[in-house]
Amino acid sequence: MRTHIVWDWNGTLFHDMEAVLGASNAAFATLGIAPLSLQEYREQYEIPIPRFYQRLLGRLPSEAEWILLDDAFHDRYHELSPACGLTEGALGLLSAWGESGHSQSLLSMYEHDRLVPVVERFGISGHFVRVDGRSGPSGGQKATYLSRHLAALGERVDPARTVLIGDAADDALAALSVGAHAVLYTGGSHTREKLEPVGVPVVDSLAEAVELAGRLAA
Predict the structure, then answer these.
(1) How many helices (H) and strands (E) does the chain have?
(2) Cβ-contact 217, 3 below 8 angstroms
(3) Using one digit for the tens of pLDDT, what is the confidence trace for 136-153?
(4) Neighbouring residues of 54: CB distance < 8 A, sequence distance ≥ 6
(5) How far is CA 198 from its chain centroid?
(6) What is one Pfam family matched by this protein (predicted)?
(7) Which stretch of DSSP H or E encloses residue 39?
(8) Are 99 and 82 within 8 A, CB to CB?
(9) Using CB atoms within 10 A of its CB, is residue 33 exposed (0-12), middle (13-18) or buried (19+)?
């Protein structure tokens, strides 16, 4: 059976950290939280996201505060993200992986109805056997979504020969929960120092991630 890659989107294939930071700072401002630099954000960020806000507030946000934060974030992100592009080298890696006879799919915690048009805008939909985004409330974890994603792919993929490439510890935890491999990329939401304790390979480029994925699931 072929090796299958499940790609994360935000912070991995889609280089959107500047938009994420701007949107996060807009959300913080609604509750009087001081803005963060990109480095500070990457050092503090955590999934599930309510725990990230708890770290900054010193307490969990109330339900009303969570709605305020979430709405402010997404409103600003939708304004800023169109200026973002694919991560350097991503298009060539997608093409080469498919041409080598392997398969790949895309799984994101970004809202599905917003994800699909963005992926189509970049002209890369044809590289994926399946594209799934979030269908429920924001702020959750990826494990359940990955399980559904692989179930939908069915016999086309074997979890033991599947590698999730993402930028967050939550990506690795999701992969491990279904018996898949994971490679984490340092160019997104987490610093290397926050990724390494998870215990999966950590790389500084998507090219390294793909090369390692091919060896991990061989």
Answers:
(1) 10, 8
(2) yes
(3) 777 678 999 999 999 999
(4) 60, 61
(5) 16
(6) Hydrolase_like
(7) helix 38-44
(8) no
(9) middle
